[in-house]
Amino acid sequence: MDNQNWYNIQEFAPNTFQFNEAELWNMFLLIGEEKAVSIDGGIGIGSVRKLCESITSLPIEHILTHTHWDHLGSIHEWESIAVHENGKNNLSNDFAEGCKDFISNWKGKEFPENFVSENFKLKPGVFGEPLYEGQIIDLGNRKLHIYETPGHSPDSISIYDEKEGVLITGDLVKPHMPLFIQVPTAVLSDYGPSLRRLESISKEKNVQWICSGHSEPFKDLSIISEMADFVEKIEKGNIEPPKKIEAGKWGFIDEYRAERFQVWINDNARR
């Protein structure tokens, strides 16, 4: 596996890989008998395609759980990108400011060879086809089911792999981390229903693993119900007042604390 001395790789289920970039961003590779799918692209410091092709020789499709900058880093490496219709116009934008902030403040291991931070930019990708509710992507004896789960963003989707019982939620579910409902694309009234949708999937399907964009794969499905209950209480106002905190570029936001996670939210998301 060509991790480029940058990605941390784990195969947590058969032919199911998580790539972690800088202990912050996750990408996934799911391999079937006929083809594979690469999910999300990190921030683009290394080459996700090169890494995927060092693991499998099968054709690889690239899809996105949503189009925030920290998931778009490798989109230029692929011939086309599958994403929800609401995100297709974001593939041509340069959201490099967040990446540049990370690069300038990075104190960890060295960047991959040939990476020149001064020349960095997020390169555009080509929209291929939309991802939509009820869609099934057949990798060959391995089917992926697509669900629309807005809340963190209007183009957010979740992916259920019926063979290995893997549920990939993008940034909607993040245990031991804040739920980001303070980002400009977030809508509080969408968040609870999407969490309830994932709760139903986790109960009705053979879910063994839940994977998010920013945490380790985990098996405790109960946290989805906890998050749904908590977010609904926030929306209804049936909860203790939040703490005001300063959150960098987002300014002052409301922070709610549960036992196993936090929720960050601002007034814009309450629209």
Describe the overall structure:
It is a single chain. Helix content is 18%, strand content 28%. The protein contains 4 helices and 16 strands. Helix 3 packs antiparallel against helix 4 (222-236). The protein has one domain (7-270): Ribonuclease Z/Hydroxyacylglutathione hydrolase-like (Metallo-beta-lactamase, Chain A), CATH 3.60.15. A hairpin with a 5-residue loop joins strand 14 (243-246) and strand 15. It is α/β, with parallel strands linked by helices and 271 residues long. The strands form 4 sheets. It has a 5-stranded mixed beta sheet with strand order 1-2-3-4-5.
Our count of helices gives 4
Number of strands: 16
Secondary-structure-based class equals alpha/beta
Whole-angstrom Rg:
18 Å
State the assembly state of the protein chains. Answer: single chain
H/E series, N to C?
Answer: EEEEHEEHEEEEEEHEHEEE
- The CATH C-level name is Alpha Beta
Let me know the CATH homologous superfamily.
Ribonuclease Z/Hydroxyacylglutathione hydrolase-like
The CATH architecture can be named as 4-Layer Sandwich
Instruction: Return the domain count.
Output: 1
For the biggest β-sheet, the strand order reads 1-2-3-4-5
Please indicate the percent range of residues in DSSP E strands (runs of 2 or more).
Answer: 25-35%
Biggest sheet record: 5 strands, mixed
Shape: globular
The average pLDDT score comes to 93
Please estimate the helix content.
10-25%
The CA-CA distance between the termini, in Å, is 46 Å
Low-confidence stretches: none
> Which fold name is given in CATH as the topology?
Metallo-beta-lactamase, Chain A
